[in-house]
Amino acid sequence: MSIDKTLSVQKREHHGKGPSGRLRAQHLIPCVFYTAKGDNIPVHALELSLEKIYGEMGRTKVFNLEIDDNGQKTAHPVLFWNVQRHPYKKCFTHIDFYGVDLNKAVKVDVPLEFVGSSRGVKLGGILETYRKSIRLASKPMDMPQKITIDVSDMNINDTITVADLQLPANVSAVCDRNYALVSVLTKSKEDIEESGADAQIAPVAG
User: Fold this and answer.
1) Is residue 112 part of a domain?
2) How far is 199 from 187, CA to CA, in rounded Å?
3) For the Large ribosomal subunit protein bL25 L25 domain, which residue ranges apply (predicted)?
4) Cα–Cα–Cα angle for 147, 140, 111, nearest 5°?
5) Is 18 exposed, middle or buried (0-12, 13-18, 19+ CB in 10 A)?
6) What distances in angstroms separate CA 144 from CA 64, 93, 167, one per listed residue?
7) Which among 50, 100, 95, 44 is positioned nearest to 68, based on CA atoms?
8) CB within 10 Å: which end of the chain, N or C, has fewer?
């Protein structure tokens, strides 16, 4: 499997709030590339180019980061790592890229997508989702973009846990297999809160 997407960026020399603000005024976003060896290289990227490739790759798919350093270009396989956006303009303000070794496993929080209409909900139950993502481990090129969970066959009091997931080959979950992901409950959220019942929510393992 080859990497077919590339983002071109320019190495930047100036740091701090002032230079970063001037870059954003030119629709250039300050970024940092963290190499697999632990070094960091400040760069900047065109806002439109970032939006385009982020929409295609998200945080789970590998692409090449081509760094132009005074005309000398080098390419590195990376993932989007830390993505910061303006609180109300919805534009990027800063990006961290994480360099990966294609032969070594990485851990990534992969989005969960819940699809279907539950049998239990049709009978009056409440669908309660406990996670928006799940941390998975695999080699970078094997990482799925999302995990889809079909809730159609869930009845009242049914729960889908990590152990129930059908993960792709060479991909494993980095959390307890008994962690609940989604349940069909007999009570409303308000009733559960009033009765003091605890939803089975577990933190993502590190």
Assistant:
1) yes
2) 12
3) 7-97
4) 25
5) exposed
6) 17, 27, 9
7) 44
8) C
Identify whether the C-beta of residue 42 lies closer than 8 Å to the C-beta of residue 11. Answer: yes
Q: Which residue shows structure tokens 């809730």?
A: 151
What domain count does the chain have? 2
- Together in a domain, 67 and 94: yes
Q: Which amino acid is at 183?
A: S
pTM given for the model:
0.81
- Report the distance separating Cα 140 and Cα 52, nearest Å: 20
Amino acid at 45: A
pLDDT in tens, 123-182: 999 999 999 999 999 999 999 999 999 999 999 999 999 999 999 999 999 989 999 999
- Tell me which residue range forms the domain holding 152: 106-195
Are residue 75 and residue 114 in the same domain, yes or no? no
For residue range 24-61, list pLDDT tens digits in order: 889 899 999 999 888 899 999 999 999 999 999 999 99
